[in-house]
Amino acid sequence: MSRGSVWAAGLVAACLAFATAGCRGRGHKDYDRVPDADVVANGDARVDASIGDAVTLNPLLAQDSASDDIIGLVFDALLRYNPGLELEGDLAKSWQVRDKGLRIVFHLRRGVLWQDGKSFTSADVAFTYRAIMDPKVACPFKADFSLVSRVETPDPWTVVVTYRKPFAPALSAWAEASILPLHLLKGRKLSGGSFDSHPVGTGPYCLVSWKRNQSIELKANPLYWEGEPHIRRYLYQIIPDPATQVLEMKSQNVDTVNLSSVPDQYRDLSRSASFREIGRTFRFPGFNEYEFFGFNLLKPMFQDKRVRWALSYAIDRKALIDSILLGYGQPCSGPYVPSMPAYNPRVTPVPYDLGKAEKLLDEAGWKRGKDGWREKDGRPMAFTIATNQGNKVREEVATILQQQFARLGIRARVQILAWSLFDSQYVSKKNFDTVVLGWGLGMDPDQYVIWDSKESGPGGLNFISYKNPRVDRLLEEGRTTFDWKKRVRIYRKFHALIAADQPVCFLFAPDSLSAVNRRFHGLLVTKTGCMWYWPTRWYVPKSIQLYP
Amino acid sequence: METLLSLENLHVSFHTPQGDPEAVRGVSLELRAGETLGLVGESGCGKSLTALSLLGLLPPGATQTQDRLRFLDREWDRPTPEDWRSLRGREISIVFQEPFTSLNPVMRVGEQVAEVFRLHQGMARQAAWAASVEMLKKVGIPEAASRARQYPHQFSGGMRQRTLIAIALACKPRLLIADEPTTALDVTVQAQILKLLKRLKREMGLTLMLISHDLGLVAQMADRLAVMYAGEIVEMGDLQAVLGDPKHPYTRGLLACLPRLGAQGRLASLEGQVPEISYLPYGCAFHPRCAHAFKLCRRRDPELKEVEGRRVACHLYGSGE
Amino acid sequence: MLLRYALKRALFSVPLLLGITLISFLVLHLAPGSPVSARGSLNPHISPESIRELRALYGLDKPLSTQYWDWLKRCAGFNFGDSFQDRQSVLSHILQALPATLLLNGVALLLVFGLGLPLGIFSAIRSGSPLDRAFTLSSFLAFSIPAFVLALFLQLVFGAWLGWFPISGFSSPWSMGQGWLAQAGDVLWHLVLPVWTTAFGAWVTVAQYMRNSTLEVLSQDYIRTAFAKGLGARRITLRHALPNALLPIITLLGLSVPGLVGGSFIIETIFAWPGMGRLGYEAAMNYDYPLVMGVVVMGAVLTVFGNLLADICYAVVDPRVRY
Amino acid sequence: MNAPKPRALKWGAFFLLLFAGVALLAPWLSPQNPDRQSLAERLEPPSPLHWMGTDELGRDVASRMVWGARVSLGVGTAAVLATTLIGVLLGALAGAQGGWVDALIMRAVDIFLCVPTLFLVLALIVFLGPGIENVILVIALTGWTDIARLVRAEILSLREREFVLAARTAGASPWRLILKHLLPNALGPVYVSVTFGLAGAIMMEAGLSFLGLGVQPPTPSWGSLLTSGQDYLQTAYWLTLFPGLAICSSMLVIYLFGEGLREYFNPRAAQR
Questions:
Q1: Residue ranges covered by each domain of chain C
Q2: How many Å lie between the alpha carbon of B98 and the closest alpha carbon of chain D?
Q3: Cβ-based contacts of D37 with chain A (< 8 Å)
Q4: Is the CB of C287 inside 8 Å of chain A's CB atoms?
Q5: Contact criterion met (CB below 8 Å) for A48 and A235
Q6: Would you tell me the crossing angle of helices C289-317 and D99-114 to the nearest 10 degrees?
Q7: What are phi and psi of A366, to 5 degrees?
Q8: How many CB atoms lie within 10 A of CB B39?
Q9: The whole model's pTM is what?
Q10: Contact list, A47 vs chain C (CB under 8 Å)
């Protein structure tokens, strides 16, 4: 036996001695054709995989998606979004908007209990508002409530919120603000206290244990006002590497995985017959994120609209999607994602048309020199494309754009930088030519902070310095009208205006890809997702339950 | 005096990519019990290798063959590692030239001596330590008891050489080989070490094989003398015979270079250098540097023959005067 | 005499640690970006105004010197302050991540030196033989296999296909109720693949260092003297060659003490191991100054202590160095 | 007595020149333009057209490997040389001089080991800007500590040797003492650390470029090829296989060259 195998055998033998629980072979039956398929049974558990651990379970501090996932299960807000992406009642049964948007009246649901048995009243909502505004907490989304002048509770079941100015996005703000228990937090430390890791809410699941950077265990809340969830236990397993998540999924140690960042894994899973026996893959158009190629409008070269349009024509969006996202993405034509109601279907994405691009650049004076590279009054047409390190999609987009612009005779240089460097030295100081970045949007169509000219100051999000008074008016109008239909019309006009200006070239919106273990039944699958109302709908037939 | 050790036709060769040149080309010698044999020759003539071959301690890359090696009543033609181990330390011991690096730097001196007692005589730890202190006293190390606990780097060169001698003689071997024992030491210490060797030889009835390039030093110690050149013994016999009336031209040349008290004029020196073992001249290896060389010397390598009470390997004495 | 030396070094390490924390603090603040920008910037939900409030809360608006002084005062009382992210105490973060990393690296270190040393000696004694050449070649192959390749291979073969070991994780999720021993066994069972990945590349280095230093020692004169004494090969190797060959290895051991705490981000990410590697990386990426400083201080104490220990061991083993 | 085996030295030097040649003659050797993307041929296995297959943007891996040699071998060897130079000199000085010099250098070692490298790198990017020289600087700054301690330990045990004391009494200046007497015998561990140091430096270059300090896309380097291969390990093994083999073979070459050098300078040790 050569030395290599002697050593390896020795090691394996030693490790085998450790193997106590034996291997966890999971024979899987055929989950679909099960006799008790439609008998709603309680029990079993759902193991969800996440790349990062929750940072905090205190709704006042949470900013990352992992924290929001858990908080969403432990707490409720006054309102919530339905599969049609419209608002509906949650802790508030119904609501009215009065005095042309200056006052919102919420009628709370009666008989709702906190997970510790105390009853939920309007005092909790008022307390939550005061907690959000408390300077010692420095709550990150405090701005959404800056226009609130008073929150009154005439009786335990009604809350009246008065605003200094009509503020349409207020409703979506109340749909994201988790309501805190007054009786547990009154007089106690709002942030950094024990509540941060032992939260008590009104939501469908309560916290059991939190092993940092490992897993968060929740159990069904028997007192939940929509009825106790069928799936009695939920485990949020932290597995930072997507490839490992897929491996765990195939061995049925994990039940649901988000595959948006690893399209090739999604493709393999959806094509694999062996996986189809134990799981299903889902693909939905993404609804809150798009990538764009932005110009620094302070630079003279990009102030000429023809140059911006020429570059937009030179981008082959389909090739980008096919190569980077393996086709799992939609090209987008404006600051909204196709699946959002505010998306203007009449505005089509900029087609790939090198001929037009060449013509526009010649018109703008950037002629091709003898060596084929374009220049104007002796200056070569060259700029850098900057993006942040760690985001594989953006790095590949930048590298491909460099190649596509080279075909147009433009010398582009790629600059990949660590995020903090990128933000503090380049973006905030506006010393960049172009960037490849993306926006993660909320449900509400209001994009004042990104496109309004007043927001282009230092630290503002309008770092490309886009100033268009007509757009400013539209944004202002959109913020103050509560009528959903009128708002949608306003934002579609806003979408068309921005698309015409091309301050940035809108590239694509990646699809949301996921996989779910096949043993779960009762899924509500719609155009926008498969996870809707899962706590109250999902169940696993008794015969195929995996966990006791 | 009966013969303690006899070696017949020893060859030592090194294998290199360019072939296997021989550093020792057929050396035979015998040692009578109680005598001191001096082995002299310029560096590179194979004298150290000959000594090392007696204990099978050749460096790797070297191979040794001999017709027969006899020690007292035992005899081998190709000794196995066990045979060598039965000889080393118990029957034959050796002291090397480099006292500074020949002791284990991280082990106490006393321990390095005691180790031999424990191994060969199976002594217990305490007894071995006592014996080692005793041995160190015997070789003239002051306050042996306390010095034994110290480490080699705390000893001077002379003291380290004395320790090595203590190690070599711990188990009262019959033969002690001293390979240039004093070369690395300064003159005063040299004299002390030689005096010590003489005393111990007398007290323990040792047979001594002294190897050196310094003829003057060997002349004070040796009973018999063997002169080596380019891997062969060219002249061997009683000290007085060889020194008084050197027969082999090389011996004569060597003696001529020795500074004499009161002698005048320039020191004589031998022209040329010791040949490289891989490019040895045909016939007698010394002939290019020999004033009396004639045709036969260039063709045939002379054997050792009895000439006037000593043996010489030179054609001058082969075919008549 | 050694005690005096150790005490002198220990006393001297206090100003050294201060020096290290000061330099780290400066480097931290020299690096572009700040805790607030790391998370808050370019996030439509967060308004510039709440960013200003955050800066005040973190005390970032105070001058650097006061920030450092405040940190130092708290640090003296073993209170490393709260992490910016979730305002939990830095100490609790470290104490949660440290055991996992110490366990992983500790066992890996044992494996590395336990396997590396004998193999190094073995191949030195057999130096030049085809076995030795094969070993050297395979050690380079082993060293250049990237950790993530080996990790995936182990996960695929031993995790998914054979199912002998768990693919990732520190312990089985539902194991809360079991007894102490079962939980320990469960963690050890999860430890197998990450340890194998960590140790695989490293023990090769130790083996080569050992082979090299043994070769060096075997060519020394005192080994020839040992043979001349008639000692057997085994005894010579153990009593004479090994102690001398181990000297450079002790320094190597001292150098790997900081590694014990550092934790490798890649291996911890792939095996979902809740260790210091991920904690340190996330703290750095989010510019969580108190957490980063906490990790730096602990790393510094261990490094200084590790080097001190190595020097003392060296003096104990090698009398020539005792001064 | 016998001439040292020149074989290792001959083969080592031959391969070293071969690798350096590949790096220098990249423009002529590389089968295709390393940056030319053809998204249609994305992630294709090795084929007659693309000897080493294509990467995630359809670029020819073989040409990127040849061009990558320039960065990786260049940075790798330069960084390892710098690290070894600083480490050996400071280590020797600390070992030979002792006293406060030794304490000063050893404490500097402790400091360099503890300062968080990531922030050091980010700070450097701002002040010095990205660039290959800065990568070498960072690797050298953080890498010299190990060698320094190893060499210092070797020197400490040599210091007491008589021949050193003799040289010192003969009035040898500290530097002559170190260079002529102490160092040649203390180079044992250095050979090993240089060999493994090279692979370490190549991987560190990739890490630093990843953060924005080193080469910017699309310039290839073995390290960046390897790290980008991580995401496609299961679907495109060749993205990881070839850079890994290249790093392994360059280590082998350095080892062979080192072994040859050692045999040349110190035949006795190598003869065993």
A1: 95-322
A2: 11
A3: 399-400, 403
A4: yes
A5: yes
A6: 140
A7: -90, 85
A8: 27
A9: 0.81
A10: 173
Q: For residue range D122-180, list pLDDT tens digits in order.
A: 777 777 777 788 888 888 888 888 888 888 888 877 776 656 666 666 666 767 777 77
CATH superfamily of C95-322: MetI-like (1.10.3720.10)
Peptide bond into D218 cis (omega under 30): yes
Q: Name the pLDDT band for A128 (thresholds 50, 70, 90).
A: very high
Q: How far is C223 from chain B (nearest CA, A)?
A: 8
- Using an 8 Å Cβ cutoff, are C19 and C34 in contact? no
CA-based nearest distance C50→chain D, Å: 26
Which residues have C-beta within 8 Å of that of residue B278, sequence separation ≥ 6? Answer: B18, B19, B21
C156 touches A: beta carbon within 8 Å: yes
Q: In this structure, what is the dihedral angle of CA atoms C154, C158, C160, C161, given to the nearest 10 degrees?
A: 120
User: What DSSP letter does each residue of A147-200 carry, written as one string?
Assistant: TEEEEEEEETTEEEEEESS--TTHHHHHHH-PPPPHHHHTTS-SSSSGGGTS--
Name the more confident of B278 and D202. Answer: D202
Quick one: which of B246, B216, B229 has its CA closest to B284? B229
Q: What is the pLDDT of residues A261-289, one digit of tens each?
A: 888 889 999 998 889 888 999 999 887 78
d(CA D187, CA B245): 53
CB contact under 8 A, A449 and C97: no
Which of A146, A218, A423 should we substitute to test contact with C (largest number of C Cβ atoms within 10 Å)? A423
- Please give the pLDDT value at position A24: 39
pLDDT at position C169 is 87
DSSP C229-267: TT--HHHIIIIIIHHHHHHHHHHHHHHHHHHHHH--HHH
Q: DSSP character for A113?
A: B
Question: Measured between alpha carbons, how far is A347 from B149 in angstroms, rounded to an integer?
Answer: 95
What pLDDT band is residue A178 in, cutting at 50, 70 and 90? very high
Domains of chain A: 3-51+204-285+515-544 (3.40.190.10), 74-185 (3.90.76.10), 289-510 (3.10.105.10)
How many B-D residue pairs are in contact by the CB < 8 A criterion? 26
With touching defined as 3+ CB pairs under 8 A, do chains D and C touch?
yes
Contact D125 A403 (CB under 8 A): no
Residues of D in contact with B23 (CB under 8 A): 1
User: ipTM score here?
Assistant: 0.77
Instruction: Flag if A211 and C42 touch (Cβ within 8 Å).
Output: no
The nearest CA of chain A is from the CA of D60 a distance in Å of 15
- Listed by number, the residues of chain C in 41-60 with a beta carbon closer than 8 Å to a beta carbon of chain D are none
- Tell me which amino acid residue B283 is: G
* Nearest-neighbour CA in chain A from D106: distance (Å): 32
Can you give the C-alpha Rg of chain B in angstroms?
21
D-chain residue closest to A404, CA distance? D37
Of C32, C93, C168, which is closest to A424 when you measure between CB atoms? C32
Helix (H) or strand (E) holding B278: none
Q: From first to last of the 272 residues of chain D, give the pLDDT tens digit.
A: 334 456 777 777 888 888 888 888 878 888 788 888 887 788 888 888 888 888 888 888 888 888 888 888 888 889 889 999 999 889 888 888 778 888 888 888 888 888 777 777 777 777 777 778 888 888 888 888 888 888 888 887 777 665 666 666 666 676 777 777 777 777 777 878 888 888 888 878 877 776 767 777 778 888 888 888 888 887 888 888 888 888 888 888 887 777 777 666 655 544 33
Task: Please name which of D94, D26, D33 lies closest in space to residue D218, comparing C-alpha atoms.
Answer: D33
DSSP assignment string, C270-288: HTT--SHHHHHHHHHHTT-
In D, minimum Cα distance to B153 occurs at D160
Q: What is the pLDDT of residue B262?
A: 67
